[in-house]
Amino acid sequence: MKTITRIRKTLGVIGIILLLVGLIGYKFANAQSSPAPAATPTPSSTIATPVDMTSATTTAPATAAATPVDAPLAHDISDSVVGKPASTAVTDPTNDPSGANTGGISDISTADPKNAGRPTALDIANQVGKNKIAINFVWTLLCGFLVMFMQAGFALVETGFTRGKNAAHTMAMNMVIYCLGVLGFYVVGFGLMFGGLNPLGTLGGTTVLNHEFSIQLLGKTFGLFGTTGFFLTGKAYDVAVLTLFLFQVVFMDAAATIPTGAMAERWKFVPFCIWGLFLSMILYPLYGNWVWGGGWLAMLGSNFGLGHGVVDFAGSSVVHAVGGIASLAGVIVLGPRIGKFRKDGTPVAIPGHNLTLALLGVFILAFGWFGFNPGSTLAGVDLRISVVAVNTMLASCAGLFSAMIYMWWKTGKPDPAMAGNGCLAGLVAITAPSAFVNPMGAVIIGLIAGILVILVAGVIEWKFKLDDPVGAIAVHGANGLWGLISVGLFADGTYGDSWNGVKGTVTGLFYGDGGQLVAQLIGVVVCFVFVFFGSLIFFKIVDATIGMRVKPEEELNGIDISEVGVLAYPRDDMFSMPERMAPRPKSS
Amino acid sequence: MKKIEAIIRPQMVEEVKNALADINIAGMTLTEVRGFGNQKGFVDHFRNNEIYVSLLPKMEIKIIVNDEQVDQVVKVIIEAARTGEVGDGKIFVSSVDEVYRIRTGDRGAKAI
Q: B11, A575: Cβ pair inside 8 Å?
């Protein structure tokens, strides 16, 4: 018979078999779940009308006065609230499709097991406290997972904006930076950065991270780096500490992956790996400690009265400026790609090989940023998270918009690639101020960021003759510093009481506090000087010892094979060559 | 009239194009080709296995010139496309019977 008829007959037979199996299975399952008639008496009704919450609150004070707090409440509320009593017989469970009977008083842990199902007021208070901390844990961890996904966004943006012959190498760098960053931070970076950060207020208040190395200068304490928490062992093996670790390590990895874009297409893989370890273990944690770990930049407020010290909510400087400024040092040492600059110094456009991937990467980054900024409250119960999230969203769109309009004006076309860079610039810029500004401020910051990124990219390429294939210096370096400055301008004083140990909310110049701007500017200078010279020295040493750059002929051919041994885009017919015309591959 | 077919490395296309523009050759046809000669391939990997790749990507430039220009054009292409490594490519010169310009209907040397 014809092939199509045979296929149809086969599918028909399979379909009938599946139908029979399904019917039999359904009947079988239903027979199991329906109770045998009159075999066991059903338990007393578990469904009751929900208690009127207003009447419960008015009676509570009276009962509290009447009974000691750790005894079961005299007013027995266990039968008048929704939920299964603890004594439900397990031999005949009922299902709950609406959810009305799942969860309730029997889920409150009681200090005394005899009170199971009838908690005391202390039990309830304890559970409430635990739930509050649990909300904060869940929030922080989930936001951390979102930020981890930004690694994919960075990878796609960088690979899309560079050439296909190097795509495997670019993707490999972005993948490997994740693992090297995490491991380096685990071994030593986290301890250096947060060893002295106590207490972890929103995550249960633990104070195990209580060792900070400081020096005394000008009569004040200058915290420099932490000295506990290495390998996450000992006192650091703690649920709150590990929550903090996960959240912070993905931030560090964002900083680490920024230079892989600026230095793409000509960076040897070995020096890149050493860079990953250097950033995660030394460079990032030091500046990070000074701003986030309770170090001296954060203490400029309590030590010298400069606002609240350097305020960087989610890391415009700690993450993005660090990555962008290190990129600047890196491209200076590495040099431009072959063919990027003509003999007279004018730049040549080297188009990326996949705009689709690049713009998808921008979306992934914008999405992940909803973990980056709002997650930095480290608290789901801190309802400012909605303001942070909306500010983030507004700044990203404002940056995209202003970049697009500017390119439309300048070149006659709304360049999508630059618009994507503008979106990222807005996100970078709002990262520091996201918790402290109002939506209007967020829009203004984003609009400025979108223009700034294009101007800086032009200066880097045309004036300084540096080759940055993805614009990392303009997006992350320049806008990271702009974000830090904007806190000192636009913070409107509606949030941040006791930030960095200084009473009062965080306020910027436009809302009455010029001292904050001074602190921010100090942060800008320290960030630039420390990161630029720190990474410049590092790159120069690496270049002098093992060399940073691939050989020119390898660069021209594409560094996929020479650096990582695989092609990102092999042709399907590439290995159909008869063997006698080509030598055998080397056996490894 | 002669046809010059030059198979060169893809990276040298810009150099060759600019060098030809310098001697007023302003038109050409470019084809992406793959092949090999003395240049052996390279080893690609996929998971645990090696793949021997010997069809290497090259670019073929075709230009039509007057007989007098052949030597100069060939010299310019060789200088621009040479890197000194195995795999620089080859140039083939052949005769062309007739050339027409579609827009105007010109033929012969006027159409080059």
A: no
Phi-psi region of A305 (alpha: psi -120 to 50; beta: other; left: phi over 0): left
CB A219 within 8 A of CB A340: no
What residues in A contact B52, CB-CB < 8 Å?
575, 577, 582, 584-585
User: Which H or E element spans position B42?
Assistant: strand B42-46
Give B-chain residues touching A553 at CB under 8 angstroms: 83, 85
SS3 for B59?
strand
- Give the SS3 label for residue A24: helix
Domain A129-564 has CATH 1.10.3430.10: yes
A570 and B54 in contact by Cβ < 8 A?
A: no
Contact at 8 Å (CB) between A394 and A447?
no
Subunit contact A585:B50, Cβ cutoff 8 A? yes
ipTM above 0.90, yes or no: no
Which among A338, A561, A562, A575 is the top mutation candidate for probing chain B, defined by the most B β-carbons within 10 Å of its own β-carbon?
A: A575
> Which chain B residues are closer than 8 Å to A561 by Cβ?
42-44
Parse chain A into domains and list their residue ranges: 129-564
Supply the pLDDT for residue B11.
87
Question: Contact, B51 vs B99, CB < 8 A?
Answer: no
* Mutation target vs A (from B39, B50, B56, B83; most A CBs, 10 A cutoff): B50
Residues 6+ apart with CB under 8 A from A486: A429, A432, A433, A437, A441, A445, A508
- Residues forming beta bridges with residue A225, ordered by sequence position: A213
Task: Please name the residue that has the structure tokens 């004594």.
Answer: A87
Q: Which residue of B has its CA nearest to A556?
A: B11
- Which residues of chain B lie closer than 8 angstroms to A584, CB-CB? 52
Helix ranges restricted to H, B1-112: 13-22, 70-81
Rounded to an integer, what is the distance from CA A265 to the centroid of its chain?
26
Instruction: Give yes or no for a contact between A124 and A56, defined as CB atoms under 8 angstroms apart.
Output: no
Would the CB atoms of A582 and B43 count as touching at under 8 Å? no
Which 3 state secondary structure label does DSSP give B43? strand
Residues of B in contact with A577 (CB under 8 A): 41, 52-55
One digit per residue, pLDDT tens: chain A, 588 residues? 688 899 899 999 999 999 999 899 888 877 765 554 444 444 433 333 344 344 333 444 444 444 455 665 555 554 444 454 555 556 788 999 999 999 999 999 999 988 888 999 999 999 999 999 999 999 999 999 999 999 999 999 999 999 999 999 999 999 999 999 999 999 999 999 999 987 898 999 999 999 999 999 999 999 999 999 999 999 999 999 999 999 999 999 999 999 999 999 999 999 999 999 999 999 999 999 999 999 999 999 999 999 999 999 999 999 999 999 999 999 999 999 998 998 899 998 899 999 999 999 999 999 999 999 999 999 999 999 999 999 999 999 999 999 999 999 999 999 999 999 999 999 999 999 999 999 999 999 999 999 999 999 999 999 999 999 999 999 999 999 999 999 999 999 999 999 999 999 999 999 998 999 999 999 999 999 999 999 999 999 999 999 999 999 899 889 998 999 889 998 766 554 445 445 555 544
Buried b / exposed e along A232-270 (16+ C-beta atoms within 10 A): beeebebebbbbbbbbbbbbbbbbbbbbbbbbbbbbbee
Tokens representing A529 are 């000087």
Note if the pTM is more than 0.90.
Answer: no
